[in-house]
Amino acid sequence: VHEHINTEVSKGITVREAAEKIWNITQLKKLRPSYSIGHPMQKFSLILKRLLPGSLFEKIIAQYSGI
After folding, report:
1. DSSP for the chain?
2. Burial state string for 42-61 with b = 16 or more CB within 10 A and e = fewer than 16
3. What is the pLDDT of residue 20?
4. How far is 53 from 23, CA to CA, in rounded Å?
5. Residue 25, Cα to own-chain centre: how many angstroms?
6. How far apart are CA 49 and CA 38, in angstroms?
7. Can you tell me the distance from the alpha carbon of 5 to that of 26, in angstroms, rounded to the nearest whole number?
8. How distant, in Å, are the alpha carbons of 15, 20, 25 from that of 2?
9. Are 65 and 4 contacting, i.e. CB atoms less than 8 angstroms apart?
10. Angle, alpha carbons 45-13-21 (nearest 5°)
């Protein structure tokens, strides 16, 4: 499981990309309470986590992770 997590983390955006996104957010005239940054599938998983029952979300993640 740890190896899979590390592999997924390594697929994330770089520190520079994150910093640029954060900088761009700070330049907006009107800010939202929170922002999600990352690759589209990573952000999509956050939406799924909010919409699906916990057990279903966990089943999907476990299946995706091969555990």
Report:
1. -HHHHHHHHHTS--HHHHHHHHHHHHT-SS--S----S-HHHHHHHHHHHHS-HHHHHHHHHHHHT-
2. eeebeeeeeeeeeeeeeeee
3. 97
4. 34
5. 17
6. 15
7. 30
8. 21, 29, 32
9. yes
10. 95
Q: What is the pLDDT along the chain (67 residues), one digit of tens a residue?
A: 678 777 877 888 899 999 999 999 999 999 999 999 988 888 888 999 999 999 999 998 888 877 7
Residue 2 to residue 9: CA distance in whole angstroms:
10
CB 63 within 8 A of CB 38: no
Residue pointed to by tokens 């999509």: 44
